[in-house]
Design a protein that fits this description.
It comes from Pseudomonas aeruginosa. The protein is mainly β. The protein has one helix at 56-65, and strands at residues 2-8, 14-20, 29-37, 43-46, 50-53. Strands 1, 2, 3, 4 and 5 form a five-stranded antiparallel β-sheet that branches. The radius of gyration is 14 Å and the shape is elongated.
Length: 72
C-alpha cells in the first residue's frame, strides 16, 4: 500500500495516517489510524486501525477532488 499522513503540531501533537492499497487488484478499503505524538515526535499512543470500505471507482473519483496529499 501507499501511505499518506497529515501531522498537526501545536497544543496537541497528533498524526493521521492512511494506507491505500495499490497494484493490479482494485482497492476495496482504506486503512486509517491516529497517533498521538510528544514534542520529540515519538509515538506515545496509537489508535486501533480503522477500515473504510470503498471500491476502486469511488477512490478514482475522490483522488482528483482531494484538497491535499501528504505522502511519506
Amino acid at each position: 500500500p501507499v501511505r499518506y499522513s497529515y501531522t498537526r503540531r501545536g497544543r496537541g501533537h497528533w498524526s493521521l495516517s492512511w494506507l491505500v492499497p495499490i497494484g493490479n487488484d482494485k482497492p476495496s478499503s482504506i486503512y486509517s489510524f491516529i497517533r498521538e505524538l510528544n514534542t520529540n515526535n515519538p509515538t506515545c499512543h496509537m489508535s486501533t486501525i480503522y477500515t473504510i470500505e470503498m471500491g476502486g471507482e469511488l477512490l478514482g473519483k475522490l483522488a482528483p477532488a482531494s484538497s491535499f496529499f501528504g505522502r511519506t
